[in-house]
């Protein structure tokens, strides 16, 4: 009986040592992973972390309402833009009024952060420095566009129309594919004193100075040359494009610079 107990104890000790030899590397790799990500804060969608609040971030979308937004040149009307499950969605099949959604406020020196996804072969965009006036018929008549495009769209073969581009002006500064349909992409727009940078999934995709002579010359020769206010401003509203396929947004945040 004593020998059986000793053999059993020996087996338990051996199993413990073996498990430790397996667990230790796993724990070590886990520590390395979390050490590399020690600055990442996993907050719920459409909320701000304590650190973000200290840095001056504000939510432009609270996950529950269209507060902070209205339809361009039409105000707070019922539209194809709806809020469902914490997501701001533009329903292409809606019978309600169509139109781009714009911020209630204007922005000049700021950083904008947002998540987005498109349905298969989808196309949309985010416009900056939009001038909302009754004599300007559409957001894109004044505001340059951060392009949003799902990679199976026919325009994907055109480098000037891929996601993260300054639409029709420059190809991606660094190549970035969008994530597969159903997964969220992350974008940032940073603008200060007219100088703007676009980012997609962590990489810079565009850089431009809207106050420069080079930009003025580009705009004057572009497809937007017949719109007198296009690209002439470094302050204005931010707009989300209503397009023919569904587009979803969440985590829309901004901070003044």
Describe the fold and architecture.
The structure is a single chain. By secondary structure, this protein is α+β, with helices and mostly antiparallel strands. Helix content is about 20%, strand content about 30%. The chain contains three helices and 13 strands. The protein has helices at about 1-35, 50-55, 215-220; strands at about 60, 70, 80-85, 85-90, 100-105, 110-120, 125-130, 145-150, 185-190, 195-200, 205-210, 235-240, 245-255. The strands form two sheets. Strands 1, 3, 4, 6, 9, 10, 11 and 13 form an eight-stranded antiparallel sheet that branches. Strands 2-5-12-7-8 form a five-stranded antiparallel sheet, with no helix packed on it. A hairpin with a 2-residue loop joins strand 10 and strand 11 (about 205-210). The longest helix is centred in the first third of the chain and has 35 residues, at about 1-35. The termini are far apart. The model is unreliable at about 1-10 and about 10-40 (pLDDT under 50).
């Amino acid at each position: 009986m004593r020998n059986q107990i000793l053999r059993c104890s020996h087996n338990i000790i051996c199993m413990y040592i073996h498990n430790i030899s397996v667990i230790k590397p796993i724990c070590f790799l886990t520590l390395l992973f979390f050490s590399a990500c020690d600055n990442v804060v996993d907050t719920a969608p459409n909320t701000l972390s304590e650190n973000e609040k200290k840095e001056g971030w504000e939510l432009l979308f609270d996950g529950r309402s269209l507060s902070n937004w209205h339809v361009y040149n039409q105000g707070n009307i019922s539209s194809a833009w709806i809020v469902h499950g914490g997501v701001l969605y533009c329903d292409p099949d809606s019978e309600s009024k169509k139109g781009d959604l714009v911020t209630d406020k204007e922005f000049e020196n700021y950083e904008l952060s947002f998540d987005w996804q498109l349905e298969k072969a989808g196309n949309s965009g985010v416009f900056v420095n939009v001038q909302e006036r009754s004599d300007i018929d559409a957001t894109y008549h004044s505001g340059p566009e951060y392009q949003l495009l799902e990679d199976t769209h026919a325009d994907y073969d055109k480098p000037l129309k891929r996601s993260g581009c300054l639409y029709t002006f420059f190809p991606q500064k660094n190549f970035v594919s969008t994530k597969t349909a159903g997964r969220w992409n992350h974008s940032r727009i940073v603008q200060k004193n007219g100088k703007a940078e676009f980012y997609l999934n962590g990489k810079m995709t565009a850089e431009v100075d809207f106050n420069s002579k080079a930009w003025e010359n580009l705009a004057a020769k572009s497809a937007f040359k017949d719109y007198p206010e296009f690209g002439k401003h470094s302050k204005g509203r931010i707009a989300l494009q209503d397009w023919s396929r569904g587009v979803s947004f969440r985590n829309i945040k901004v901070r003044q610079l």
